[in-house]
Amino acid sequence: MSKAAAIDIVSVTKTYGATTAVRAVSLKIPAGSYCCLLGPSGCGKSSTLRMIAGHESITSGDIRLGNTVVTDLPPARRGTAMMFQSYALFPHLDVAENVAFSLKMKGVPKAERHKRALEMLRLTHMEEYAARRPAQLSGGQQQRVALARALITDPEALLLDEPLSALDPFLKIRMRAELKKLQSELGITFVHVTHSQEEAMALADMVVVMNDGRIEQAAVPRTVFERPATAFVARFMGDHNVLSGTVTEATEKSATIGMEGGGAFVASGGGRAAGEAADIAIRTDRVRIGEADDPALGFTGTVSNIEYRGSSVKLSFAGPGIDDFTAIVGDTAFFARPIRVGDTVPLAWSAEDAIVLGRLDA
Ligand code: ADP
């Protein structure tokens, strides 16, 4: 259908009065990739997306789409299309007219634009609803119409602002799969804003984790999950214990982090110096209970809470200088040797499951 464009964001800042929403962000999104901007509310995701779309001015920096600097171009001349969270359909137009609206603005003759609208509706499985009004559609169907309307402009990049947030959980998962399929069929660049780490991991070729107007990490989902770059990413992605301390010993490939409570843990990751503050991450699903081999790779904890989750059990522990440490164990393993709140047990992990986290320069 259309060719995809790479998006190059070069040191882009956005301020609204005294608020800085985006702080000198640089990011290269490869052509034809599915990119998710992920982070908590207010971290600058939508501002970044709206600047790519041209719905928000860029305070400083540049955005390039393919070989074109689009910084000062209006939305319609950028080669992007935006799908809004609210769908923003015209209530007085039928579905086909909604989808064809931008072609009407461009002066495309009626028969031609109706034909193109039906093609787009076929793509989003909404052809049979062409004559309905938006009010006669479910939320999920309205969303498909909004998607068809965005795609009719033949964009090189589709920008989606929290496209699944208004759907119920079941529909969310279905639409998620359809978005991914559509993206791979069309081959165009998708940039999708979400605050759900699960959604980002399920969809993206590239996950961009944002916090307070900055990018904490941009990588393939597996890297973001397995090698979180910072404590923020490790906490936001979940399934990691983040412990903070001071580097007592550092080598090229690892560091020993002393905890306030007296213990010291070794973790992989170079470039640290003794005396620095540092954070380490330990995967919650890699913690072994009832084993004590190496004090640099474990501690003795007291069970503070137990949550049954079906296929797994979540155990919370407190230890020396450690308020809250989580271990996720399989249900079979847990019930084979159940433990109770108040029990004190040794906890251990393997060297490769503890990593030193980086810090962003302020
Ligand atoms: P996110 O999409 O991650 O929730 P936004 O980009 O919407 O974040 O917002 C980032 C920051 O900019 C927030 O502090 C928000 O309050 C502020 N902001 C966003 N839009 C405006 C606006 N139009 N006027 C003033 N402040 C805004």
Overview of this structure, please?
Keywords: ATP-binding, Nucleotide-binding, Transport. Belongs to the ABC transporter superfamily. It comes from Chelativorans salis. It holds the Pfam family ABC_tran. This protein is α+β, with helices and mostly antiparallel strands and 362 residues long. The chain is built from nine helices and 20 strands. It has a six-stranded mixed beta sheet, sandwiched between helices. A five-stranded antiparallel beta sheet has the order 13-12-11-14-20. The longest helix is centred in the middle third of the chain and has 18 residues, at 169-186. It is elongated and about 75 Å long.
The pLDDT mean sits at: 93
Bound molecules: adenosine-5'-diphosphate
In spatial order, strands of the major sheet run: 6-7-8-3-9-10
Oligomer: single chain
Content of β-strand:
35-45%
How would you characterize the largest beta sheet?
6 strands, mixed
SS content category: alpha+beta
Uncertain residue ranges: none
Global morphology: elongated
Radius of gyration: 25 Å
Overall helicity: 25-40%
The total of beta strands comes to: 20
How far is the N terminus from the C terminus? 44 Å
Counting DSSP H or I runs of 4 or more residues, the number of helices is 9
Order of helices and strands: EEEHEEEHHHEHEHEEHHEEEEEEEEHEE
